[in-house]
Design brief:
The chain has eight helices and 14 strands. By secondary structure, it is α/β, with parallel strands linked by helices. The strands form three sheets. The chain has a seven-stranded mixed sheet with strand order 10-9-8-11-12-13-14, sandwiched between helices. The chain has a five-stranded parallel sheet with strand order 1-4-5-6-7, with helices on both faces. Strand 9 and strand 10 form a beta hairpin. About 40% of the residues are buried.
Length: about 325
């Protein structure tokens, strides 16, 4: 009987949606992205093939679900399928932004729960685990039948705010009542800054739109940190900033993890009452969407550390003071 002990081998793969982020993660891990050929056929079908053997590897596949989201999501699934059929030992899907995450429950009858469908598709494709950043709702962790590592941009964003604005009186403002829990963590990390939230109503028949903003809490004379998980068209967050300034705040800083920035978000943010918009690079922000008050922090060190912890059977939770 011959016994062979194989060394664990970490292999990193990237789709075509956000290669810059994947390159940065690879550099931080001291490795290289596995050469991959990927292209579209004339009818827009996607083809993927790895140029090296992946047999027995611990594979991490990075793809940001940015627009056109269906193309990059499909490419991600195909990459996982290719790894499974090429005998990768374990496949970890790294999706900094989980596509369709806002469709996480039914608001009305006859609606899908698409976030769950995405999780099921990755399971079927052959994924063993998922790493994602700032899920739209915590319950998404339960949609995937396997381990989900939920990373948080909170330490990255709060450290930046502390360094830049820590000497001034701050307040943390949640854009709606549902995100108070997250705002509490922000407040704790900013030395117990007071909390406020925006009371808003939403018309369920009109996506991406909110009406009626009212600030609940004292923001007068304070630099207000308005925090949300994503900025899509920017309507909600810009109206919230206006409402905060109308209550006599000294200034508004918008902080968000995922910069989707669908039109007309850039114009709205550029012309908003906010003095700075702080985001991370979970999604690519092309040159034409950059503007003066936009500050982008890199999520790559956090992704690299999480991948390292998973690969070495360490603890991802330890990165976030025990929060999951």
């Amino acid at each position: 009987m011959t016994k062979r002990t194989t060394e664990k081998q970490l292999m990193l793969f990237s789709g075509r949606a956000h290669p810059v982020l994947a390159e940065e993660v690879a550099d931080l891990l001291g490795t290289k992205l596995t050469p991959t050929s990927a292209y579209d056929f004339a009818n827009s079908e996607i083809y993927v093939r790895y140029e090296e053997s992946v047999r027995g590897s611990d594979a991490f596949v990075i793809q940001s679900h940015t627009a056109p989201i269906n193309q990059w999501l499909m490419e991600h699934l195909i990459m996982v399928d290719a790894l499974k059929r090429a005998s990768a030992k374990r496949i970890t899907v790294v999706m900094p932004f989980w596509g369709y995450s806002r469709q996480d429950k039914k608001h009305r009858g006859r609606e899908p729960i698409s976030a769950r469908l995405v999780a099921d598709m990755f399971k079927t494709a052959g994924a063993d685990r998922i790493i994602s950043v700032d899920l739209h709702a915590d319950q998404l962790q339960g949609y995937f039948d396997g381990p989900v590592d939920h990373l948080m941009a909170l330490p990255l964003l709060t450290d930046y705010i502390k360094d830049k604005y820590g000497s001034q009186p701050l307040a943390v403002v949640s854009p709606d009542a549902g995100r108070i829990k997250v705002a509490e963590r922000w407040a704790a990390r900013l030395g117990g800054a007071p909390l406020a939230f925006i009371h808003k109503t939403r018309d369920i028949n009109r996506p991406n739109e909110t009406v009626a903003n009212r600030v609940v809490g004292d923001v007068k004379g304070r630099i207000c940190i308005l925090t949300d998980d994503m900025i899509d068209t920017g309507g909600t967050i810009v109206k919230a900033a206006d409402a905060i300034m109308a209550e006599g705040a000294a200034g508004v800083i918008i902080c968000a993890t995922h910069a989707i920035l669908s039109d007309p978000a850039v114009d709205r943010l550029k012309n908003s009452t906010a003095t700075e918009v702080v985001i991370t690079n979970t999604l690519p922000v092309p040159e034409e969407k950059q503007f003066d008050k936009l500050t982008t922090l890199s999520i790559a060190p956090m992704l690299a550390r999480a991948i390292r912890e998973v690969f070495e059977d360490g603890s991802v939770t330890s990165m976030f003071d025990g929060h999951a």
